[in-house]
Amino acid sequence: MAQHTVKFDIAEKPIHVPTGMLVSEAAAEAGVEINQPCGGQGRCGRCAVRISEGEIRRRSTLRLTVEDVANGYALACQSVVEGNAVIEVPPQEKIERRLTTDRTAAEVIVPEGYDPARSQTIRRLYLTLTPPSMDDQTDDWSRLQTAARKQAGVTDLKTSLTMLRRMGEVAREGDWKVTAVLNAKTWDCPDCPADLLEIYPGHIPEDTPLWGIAVDIGTTTVSLWLTDLLTGQVRAQVAEYNQQIARGEDVISRIIFASKNGGDEKMRGLVLDTINELIERACDRSKAEPTEIIKATIAGNSTMMHLLLGIPAASIRLTPFVTVVNHIPSMSAGDVGLGIHPMAIVDCLPGVASYVGADISAGVLATGMDTANKVTLFMDVGTNGETVLGTSDWLVTCACSAGPAFEGAGVLHGMRATKGAIEEVWINSKTYEPSFRVIGNVKPGGLCGSGLISLLAEMFLTGVVDKGGSINTKLASPRVREGDHGSEYVIGWGHETQNGKDIVITNVDIDNLLRAKAAIYAGFTVLANSVGLSLETVDQVLIGGSFGKYINVEKAVQIGLLPDMPWERFQFLGNTSVRGAYMALIDHNLRRRITEIAARMTYIELSANNTFYDAFMSALFLPHTDMKRFPSVAAAMEK
């Protein structure tokens, strides 16, 4: 096969690639990172590069204008090399945390009555071993077992090859006095087995922290809480965008990417890099060493858990949508690849189904809805739109594929909630002129999820769009016009924006938003119908996830994303997944409760539910085809 020379303008040197290689693959070989938020499916248009010289063949020009193509732009994931080429790579989107950073995280209150001796599976024991002699030639391991049995009542102590290799040296260095770190599923029975995780020479002061971490692997953000297991106190809360975003902004895109050309190892490496960087950051703040962390509890949706462990996730997106595993056995950090103590216990929390994972099980625990008498609707508004409805007596759950529209993907000028994102919009009902607020008080670069919700609600109430989401092209306003992607409304003129180009929302964008909100609304409608309830009978709506913190309830109701009910029934709880993981980390009874929660939840597969399609189609309008469901919106329209 013919070889061609390809030079990327930001690479150190040219590379030689065969005919037919994707430009994105060539970039990877050259060490050039090109974002592919749609997983290389050619849907997002964010991997556009400029071919300044040479021959490439475009397999798709979706998201590129005629002008873009004329100027040499091509989608890296949809274009193949057919000759020598020089390729310019535009600056890639940089991820910057919004102003509410992990340094301003809320204080975590340790559960009342926390007692590590009763609640914790990890114990640190100071043991005095009998020194060997010519008259007592018992082996070192047996001496340690005897000391643990006599001094701590541990009758069944197990160890690993790693510990056996260090045991003799440590015992002699400590003059036969050692501190052992043990883990047991429970310490309630005298014969329960315990595992030796670490052994130190001599005595470690009682007030020395015993470190553990609670981790939530979100599709968008990874959060980590560094915790002292002796006190239950969270010493550091850190968060960062999941590096997998560059290879897919939603789980389906990531599964597709992971299924191609070693993409599974690439995805695993990206999320491990994210977690390990957070571990370093948290330890720096708390003057701890990563290797001192002896336990990790991890929550995340089913796809994130599979990608973390390198378990093929392809079956999750294929009928009949089955995971490889929902209840993952405990394993060591060394096997997983976490940058903590290699023998540390890694406890991946249980999920329910392909699209209702451990993040939802942990979230139900954190909200307490599994013990509540009130009828509670718990929602995690994201790409999957997971929902749980129930009380202490019953729990039903579902997930709807809302897609990443509310996270800025699938929208022409959508972006994540970073510096420069428009987060709220107001439109004058007489002039149709918009005003907006931008994260960081800088020139806008696009619209984030909360901004899109606000914008769509304002456009509907002021008549810029109709109930079906179509832009009213007859308005006497320069803001409404025909663009490359059909009718569009201009939010920001070029002279107001970061890149000098107009920021718009198109009819295609609005259609994507309507589909996302319709899927979420239809999901909890079907759940309620499945148990013979109406949404009006729901006592409280609990909204988890970082996105939920920034939703304007009024605007979300006006577009039909949330049910129309008194505002006091809504509670925004932030990241319930990492909070649930923290609760499971410090208390084995709460950990057992998560397993029970996962087992109790009845999962409804919406793709097999005949009523979901009808509910979805009814919700594809603003706010809904049945205005009786939204009396407050009807009143606002009359005003």
Structure notes:
By secondary structure, this protein is α/β, with parallel strands linked by helices. The strands form 6 sheets. Strands 12-11-10-13-15-14 form a 6-stranded mixed β-sheet, with helices on both faces. Strands 26-25-16-17-18-27 form a 6-stranded mixed β-sheet, with helices on both faces. A 5-stranded mixed β-sheet has the order 2-1-5-3-4.
Please summarize what this structure is.
The protein is an alpha/beta fold and 639 residues long. 28% of the residues lie in helices and 24% in strands.
Tally of separate domains: 4
Question: In one word, what is the shape?
Answer: globular
Name the average pLDDT.
91
Strand arrangement within the widest β-sheet reads 12-11-10-13-15-14
Query: How many helices in DSSP terms?
Result: 17
Oligomer: single chain
Strand content: 15-25%
Query: What is the CA-atom radius of gyration, in angstroms?
Result: 27 Å
Helix content: 25-40%
Low-confidence stretches: 96-104
**How would a textbook summarize the main sheet?**
6 strands, mixed
Amino-to-carboxy terminus distance:
69 Å
Tell me the number of strands: 27
Task: Give the structural class.
Answer: alpha/beta
